[in-house]
Structures are given as C-alpha cells and as structure tokens.
Amino acid sequence: MGAVTVAERTLPTGWGIIHRMVNSVEVEGLEVIRGRRHVLSDLSLTVTAGTVTGLLGPSGSGKSTLIRAIVGVQKIAAGSVRVLGLPAGAAALRHDVGYLTQEPSVYRDLTVRENLRYFAALLGVGAARVDQVIADVSLGDHAGQRVDRLSGGQQSRVSLATAMLGEPRVLVLDEPTVGLDPLLREELWTLFHRLGAAGVTLLISSHVMEEATRCQRLLLLRDGRLLADDTPEALLRSTGQADMDAAFLALVRAAGSVA
Amino acid sequence: MSVRRSAATAWRVLAQLRRDPRTLAMILVVPPVLMLLLRYAFDSSALLFQHVAPILIAIFPFVLMFVITSVAMLRERTTGTLERLLSMPIAKLDLLVGYGLAFAAVAIVQVALVVAFVLGPLGVTIAGSVFVLALFAVLDALLGMALGLCLSALARTEFQAVQLLPAVVFPQLLVCGLFAPRAQMAGVLQGLADVFPLTYAVDGVTRAAASTGWTGSLRLDLAVVALCIPVALGLGALTLQRRTG
Ligand SMILES: Nc1ncnc2c1ncn2[C@@H]1O[C@H](COP(=O)(O)OP(=O)(O)OP(=O)(O)O)[C@@H](O)[C@H]1O
Ligand SMILES: [Mg+2]
What we know:
The structure holds 2 protein chains of 2 kinds. By secondary structure, chain A is α/β, with parallel strands linked by helices. Chain A has 2 domains: 1-23 and 49-75 and 170-259, Rossmann fold (3-Layer(aba) Sandwich), CATH 3.40.50.300; 97-167. Chain A is 38% helix and 25% strand. Chain A is built from 9 helices and 10 strands. Chain A has helices at 2-9, 15-22, 63-71, 112-123, 127-136, 152-164, 182-197, 232-239, 244-258; strands spanning 23-34, 37-48, 52-56, 78-83, 86-87, 97-100, 170-174, 201-206, 217-222, 225-230. In chain A, the strands form 2 sheets. Chain A has a 6-stranded mixed sheet with strand order 6-7-8-3-9-10, sandwiched between helices. Chain A has a 4-stranded antiparallel sheet with strand order 2-1-4-5. In chain A, helix 4 crosses helix 5 (127-136) and helix 8 packs across helix 9 (244-258). The longest helix of chain A has 16 residues, at 182-197. In chain A, 45% of the residues are buried. Chain B has one domain. Chain B is mainly alpha-helical. Chain B is built from 10 helices and no strands. Magnesium ion binds next to helix 3 of chain A.
C-alpha cells in the first residue's frame, strides 16, 4: 500500500519527480527546542534512497533528536521533515519506517520471541519473518530467553530486530552497534549494506568515527548544526587527514575559527 | 480500531503478568486476605461486617487495578516501548482496549475469588443477586484500570505513580459513604461525592446486595460506572502523545 501512495503523491511535474524519488528523507529549516535549549537550529539535509548514511557527532550534538524528528515522535518548533514524500510521522509511514531507539525499547519481562511475535502481530507479519530477524541479529540461541536475562548488547539487538521486523523501506537506527564486539559489528554492517543494496534507506547514528568509513555518505552534526555532508573519502581528502577522528577534529576547528 | 492489534496487546499484557507471579498473587490473593482480616476486626459485630463486605468487594479491585495499571502504563512510557508503539501501525485506542481486555479477564477471576470467599467461608449473606454484585465488582475493577491508565500520564516516576493513590483514590474513598453516611456529610462533600465515580460503584454494590430487582437507582449506578470506563479510556488516549518534547 505504502509504495503506491507514495509514488502517486510524489508525481508532480518536472525536476520535482527525480528530486523526490532519490531522497527518502528531506529536512528543511528544522528547529527543535527541548526544555529551553535550541537543540537543532535551522537544519537542512537530505538522505538518498537506498544508501547507508552515517549520522555522526559528539554526545549531545542532537543525533537522537534529529532521528526522533525523522520518525515523527519529536515536537518541532519550525521547519519541515518529509519521509518518502510524506510529512514525518504520517500514519501511512508507520509501516515504512523502522525505528531503533538509543536505549533498547522492548519488554524486558518477555522472551525475545514473545517480544517479536507481539510486534509482528501489530505489523501483520508472520512467524517466519520473526525467526528471520532473530537470525539476522544472531540471537537464535537466545530466542526463548527473557530479555532482562540477556546482556546489554544482546538486549539492543532484540530492539534492532524489532526495528527491522516489518521490512521497512527506511530504517532509522540510533547507535545500533554500541557495546558490540568487532565480530558482531562486522556482521551487522554487512547486514546493513545488504539491506541498502536491496533498496532500503538506512540512517545510522554513531559516535564511533571509525564506523563512519563504512557509510556511503556522512552527516556530521555539532551543536545542532550540520558541519559536513559528504562521502567519507571526500571528507578525508578535503581535510587532508588520514582517519575520520582527525578529519572531524579538523572540521570542528575550521568551523570554530570561522565563527 | 483493529481487533487483531487489540487482541495481540491483551495477550502480551497477560504474558507479562504471567511472568510476574508476585503481582498476580497480589491481584488474586490480597482481596480475600483483607476480607478475612476485616471479618475478625469486626469480630463482635457480624452485622456491620455484613454491611461493609459488599462495599469492600467493590473497593479492593478498584484500588488494586488502579495501582497496577498506572504503574504498567508508566513503565511503557519510561522504557521507551510506548514511543516505539506510537511509531508503529497501532491506534492509541487499540493499545488501551488491549489493556482493558487483559485486565478485564484478570478482574473477572479476582472478583470471582473474593465473592466466593466472602459468601462462602466468611458466611456473608446478601438479599440481592450474586451475579449483579459480581458484575458491579468487575466494572469497578475496570473503572480503576481505566482511571489508572488515564492518570498515569501525570506521573513521571514510579514513586509519583504510587502517590496518585492517596491523591486520586483516597478522596473518593473518604466521601463515598464507607466511613460515614453521605447524608450526614457537609454539603460540599456531598456535592463532591456526586461527581466521584466511586460513589456510584459503592452505591451500586450496596443496592445490589440489599435487594433483588433492577430498581431505577441501581440502573443509574450501573450506567454511570459503565460510562465512566470508556470516558476515562478516551481521556487516556488523549494523554498518549505521538510527539513529545
Ligand atoms: N528529554 C529531553 N529534554 C530536554 N532536553 C533534552 C532531552 N533529551 C535530550 N536533550 C538535550 O538535547 C541535546 C541533544 O540531545 P541528543 O540526545 O539528541 O544528543 P545525541 O547526539 O543523541 O547524544 P548521544 O551521542 O549522547 O546520544 C542535549 O543537549 C540534551 O541535553
Ligand atoms: Mg543519542
């Protein structure tokens, strides 16, 4: 249902067609105030369909807030956020957007499978898909275990499995690999790229700069403003640095000296 | 509205309760135990116990369900599962109806146990119909649940959720006629009692216990209690904001 509606609604004339169809997420002049802080200020960016885009930035820079705005659970003060051509949070998008919160958001007193079966019932997907996502996040051996008896990294993978359950066209993941060992991180990134190749748009936040090199495109956030929006290679080249940590520092310093 | 999503939610809530034997025991065992306690507290005045037992059959399920559901809903908020649900294809009402169905099932068992215990081993006899008494008691439990779901939005922490009990339930208890006949209260309090749903719940069980037959006042009590449940659930739906700060 989602695919048809979106295609229909995004078929205005001329250049608009192409523009809308390549961007899964379009943020324009976004302004978010949380408490009394301006957390995001005049933020504009796009996320290309079918790519793996990294959202990087220091702690408190507004990554989770931007993600919440894209999912449509964040109150915004100004600006617009559109996902697949529709306003973020629109009812028609709830099948198409998968969301991983930063903290695992699953029922701790239920088993892995009970959690996924419940969310599967809400999404209208079958038991085979449940087993599939459990395998995707390598939790096959723990499917019958209560979530609160799992390790922290295992708990966040249950949450990740839930986000992927409905085979959404856009996956917004808030720090999916935090606290995982290199082997699991590798497996998950392989999975993310497989999904990207299949046409899924992935926006993945992290503050591990090393993971940035695995993304096709990077959004660098600092104090609620977009510091850079480029490919990892181009960022390394333009800053003349050898690794992403150094490139990020260089960008921050450059921004500071201009201001 | 989706039956599938409500039913799935009800099933999930019941699965969570099954995993929490202490809470389940509290729901099912505490009312009969309190009744037993009270029976001996009124040891020398069996008549008084006869009078208050039906009222308490209405109040215990109300209070317990209120506490349990307000904490359960608060947990959905604080653990992020509510945010996840609201970003998924489920209507707010599906979620609340799911809770309602699950707790209705529990309330029926709870009420059956306490009614059987009071009328059986504790030897209380009522003039009216046991079925009507039990019906009121189940509706009271659901009323407590609906108010708990709705008012849990006022609490940010579990400490605060527990504080809702004295803030919301105690005033209703004090003026409902359990402690002093309403006719002898100050006019203001009588007015308050008239707008508190628990008053009608208590009146309902008292009337149901006192005589058979559907009198007009009994019907009014039933209508008020039964109406307050969807109203509170509807208000509860309003407190579930998809977008938060
Ligand atoms: N619930 C909230 N209420 C008020 N302010 C908040 C809230 N959550 C976050 N903030 C503020 O918003 C700013 C951005 O927070 P956000 O969680 O988006 O950062 P982040 O980049 O995701 O950080 P991290 O990498 O630590 O997860 C912070 O300054 C924080 O203080
Ligand atoms: Mg964050």
